[in-house]
């Protein structure tokens, strides 16, 4: 128990409270389960027997209805004429007349009780049946097993129920259950018999529907233990059960139950004797696992309640300790959020203790920090804007000076057509460069801008260079980008790459795109240059190639951050290739069309 002294007070409260709750809830739960289990077992036995009794009553009612329907047919005048009771006409001479009149009787019989699938009236002069059903050729009821079965009965009026068998009267070989009775309800003649067939499968389904057991089974037997219904495929269990002495004893009783065990599983066997078919007994077989399924659910319910009570106890214990430490826990939570850069969090408390005062001072500190952050953010934003404008301003004067100087000399040489062409190109150049004051332009406008620039420079440096602009298939010319980033690279190629030649220069501009990036490649066959080092070129003069590259790199960094890339490849005396990679921004508005 030494560990109790090494844990916190909050943990000791938890352990003590949970121990008390566990003992109390477990004892209550176990006692409740034992009481409920005894009640559930008693109810399960009673419910299973009641269900079997109700099914037996329903089956008795169904068989009684069949019996009553046959007796109603016997009382029919057409029937009585046909069998020769209370008639002076010759039965044999008028057989076909009576057979015809009996058709309506059979239709009424099957309407009253649809479960009767066929019926035969056997008389010494001939058989009466529904002519839509085919009787087996040369069939005679007398002397058959059915005749012997009815003749074996005793009493004033003989009748019998015959277990499921293949129909011996009508064609088709269907399995039926037959009700046999004498065809006249007095002692005038005992040679007329009625055999009514019920479809075995329908009667069996009727019993199954009333029992409505998913896991249990049933069977119906006569006094000799023979099955009334055709046994199922798993009849081996039933055969073993029939050999049990308790089963044999049950055949001599009206109703009851007994327990039976097979294959390490217990079963509850209920039985009850029918009243209409007095020598038939209905047995039901229910696994105890299903019979006491409620107990399994009850066990899990009580266990769930116990666990829930323990969880509630744990929560209550935590709430008790949290109530005492709430101000400190709140302050700890706020500090944790601020540590993860959630500067909107503030300490709140309804208490007036020392911890609350510390929390309010912490709030004032956060307010002051947020104010300083906002000031720094605004200053940094203004700095970026100013630097962007300064960088753009550094581009325009340099190019304008060179262009105006060229226009001046061409006008001096009376090259008015070239001057007009350059002035128009310069106008378009500035129109695209100004871009209505927007920093972003479209790829289309940017390429038009550099093309106007190249046209001007070709007028300035005749025969010095040719240029080519290539776009890969599928390039979106309306995607946005920072303006005036290709022109400085072209300017470098002309002023520095071709400074020692008079002709043969080539400038190639290639545009490619991937799913996330746009690639702008400017390549020339000029002098080449040393490795580009932007930090070293920061103080270079405006005519150096390094300044233009630094200028472009800085502008890309200000707008795209680390997502932009500038790559320089060069070989002295051979070529220079500059690749710009800028991210494609799908959430930025397009500045398409002419500015």
Automatic annotation (TrEMBL):
Topology in the lipid bilayer is annotated as: Multi-pass membrane protein
The reply on keyword Isomerase is: no
What is the protein's major site of localization?
membrane
- TM ranges: 12-33, 297-317
- Subcellular compartments: Cell membrane
One GO molecular function term of this record is: ATP binding
Q: Which SUPFAM superfamilies match?
A: ATPase domain of HSP90 chaperone/DNA topoisomerase II/histidine kinase (SSF55874), HAMP domain-like (SSF158472)
* Name of one Pfam family that matches: HAMP
GO CC, any one term: plasma membrane
Residues covered by the HAMP domain: 322-374
Q: Which InterPro entries match?
A: Bact_2-comp_sensor_kinase (IPR050640), HAMP_dom (IPR003660), HATPase_C_sf (IPR036890), HATPase_dom (IPR003594), Sig_transdc_His_kin_internal (IPR010559)
What is the top-level taxon of the source organism?
Answer: Bacteria
Alphabetic keyword roster: ATP-binding, Cell membrane, Kinase, Membrane, Nucleotide-binding, Phosphoprotein, Transferase, Transmembrane, Transmembrane helix, Two-component regulatory system
The family database entries (PANTHER family) matched by this protein are listed as:
SENSOR HISTIDINE KINASE YPDA, SENSOR PROTEIN KINASE HPTS
Q: What is this protein called?
A: Sensor histidine kinase
Supply the source organism's classification: Bacteria, Bacillati, Bacillota, Bacilli, Bacillales
